Amino acid sequence: MTVILERPYEFVPPVRTPWWPTAIQAFRLIDWHLRRRESVLEYELRNEERFAESLAAGHGILLAPNHCRYADPIALGWLARRVRTHLYAMASWHLFNSSAFESFALRRMGGFSIYREGNDRQSLEMAIEILATAERPLVLFPEGTTNRTNDVLKPLLEGVSFVARMAAKKRARESDSQVVMHPIGMKYLCLKDPRPWVHQQLIGLEKSLYFEPAHHASGPLEMLARLRRIAEGFLSLKEVEHIGASAAGDLATRRDRLMIELLHQCELKYELAATADEGVRDRVRKIRSAIAARHFGLATDQQDLKAARRDAEKADLAQFLLSFPDQYMDPDQLTETQVIETVQRIQEMIYGKAQDTMPLKVVIQVDEAIPVPTQKKGRGEKTLRGQGDPLLCQLEQRLRTMLESLARESPLFAGG
Question: pTM of this prediction?
Fold first, then answer.
């Protein structure tokens, strides 16, 4: 589902009464949802006492987890249950528009919307207020979007440190306690041998790409070769669709070439200029903002709307290609969960959603609290994006360290 909707943004607030999350926890509805919709059957909490200590101290608490699966915000309900609290969470606006039931449930679990393609003052002010008053702990995913790469941390968004620091300033004026940030590492592990599942999913993908299904190639190395072939086949189709011909070179080079071409096509059409320090995600965000403006302003007929939708799909594809890290293509280092993530990313692009997943267990690890300062930097410090914000750098280092350690808990897919 694209994040660009064909109507103006409207802020969606949370339902702030504690009755609803109390009932959701009492009836174990998050357990039911995660088991039925995400196949997350078990969980393990680590160092949750650190979170409990911050609660007992009365601090405003920001939880900053990595974000690799749609299950992440719901799974944090297990952590909240253990320390006997409820949470608020900022979520992309498009999630409140997928269905009436999901919007109903999200709001009652403490979710409120953020418009990622523009400035959303209402959402930011609510996040700052929640932290400054310590009404409940607030969940902000510093990567911004889910990426289905559990072992790789994407660049963090500056909005997380901005919200935390503004709240810290406000709380310092009104209270003796402070705002703290807890980095949270989330890691999903297979509960059984994933190879039979992977074999069946590869057969389905092969059929979708009109390949002859390799029914008998079910060894680990054979399946990895099939997965690479599927990735190359999918990439070739997209190259033909968007640049007119399949390109030569290795997968990583072709991925980057297509990604840049998609961005360039959209930027040229919408008269956008990419600066040297802008990453792919920043460029995608600018393109989506321009497309949204055309939806609400310049588009006067269905022809214009169809063209805008095609441009939105190009931006979505560019961001999708960014989620294929190089290390996920090395058969000697590929873990069980990395293979599952790669299969499901391709399924999402071909089918619109991932197919039934493996039974999973999630590990939720709480790091030590980071006191949030009220000032960003001292005189003479760097101001480059991500480099000049000590809070953001500290958060990134903590998350990266946890993910590197957690990644080693998943066995290699091909053994060894």
Answer: 0.92
